[in-house]
Sequence to fold (325 residues):
Amino acid sequence: MVKDRIKGSVFGAVIGDSLGTLVEEMGEEEVKRSYGGAIIGFLEPSPNSVCPYLKKGDFSHESQVFLTALEVYGEKGYFDENLYIEKLVEWVKDEKRHRYPSGAHINAALSYAVGAEPEEARVKASDIDGALPATAAGLFRWDAPLEAYEEGKYIASLTHRDETLTDLAGVLAYSVSKVVGGGIVLNSLEEKLSFVESLREVSKSQQVKAYLDLVIGALRKGISEKEAPLLIGNGSFAPEAFSTALFIFLKNPNSFRKALLLAVNSYGEFGGDTDAIAFITGSLSGGFLGIEAVPKRWIECLRERKAVELTVERFLESAVGKEEQ
Fold:
């Protein structure tokens, strides 16, 4: 059912962010010193982490902004850019709600708060967190991937003016729409390659296409998930983080738990943007397999689980009601 896949995608993304934030920017040796080894479940953040002030089960600003976009769809039944900007401004003003916040989203929202027009407010940045709210467009347009691409690109363009970033946001929304819509099969190498090719075809950016080519090459060569950060990269550059997350998902399409933990622990020797990589992997895997594939104990560990559930339920009334109600 579409509803189950949407729920799986939302909770997959938020759980991925929560777990990945524990080890963001930490290399393998530092992870061992801080946690004793790889992350396999929810823990209190280490004092050495980027988020020592968070609690076990908290998620970062990346999920907060994504959930803000979901709220807009749920309240309006469409993406209302004015409401989205209003909500971002409210979020920025309430400093107690900030979770290791993105400078780009903060700066854009502050500009909007003093009356700036979009051309003045948008920030020149290509970090992956600028693309993540576009996931909401993929979920809302689960039955129209090309529309999801355009809407995802537009959501990112409200805060960012980097063409590679906004194109990648569109590709992210398109990929989420495809997996949640239930129109793909990923049993064979050829089916996986075909899916990546479809993303390459919709992309308008040569940089995004080049990174998707790396995914295609890695799949054909049969490299391991541990080698992916070396070949594709695991940094915050949007096409890099997305492509590593996509590769991990495609290598493990039938196991949410395995895919997510590989994404969370994709820090490599020198560290990486593990919360964004796990967010994307969790969104794709949860969207592909549905909410039943997401371990219940992980859902229960989220400190704001009930708030997320309410946001999802309201979103579903708009996103799925047009077809199933």
About this structure: The chain has a mean pLDDT of 94. The chain has one domain: 2-324. The radius of gyration is 18 Å. The domain at 2-324 is CATH 1.10.4080.10 (ADP-ribosylglycohydrolase fold).
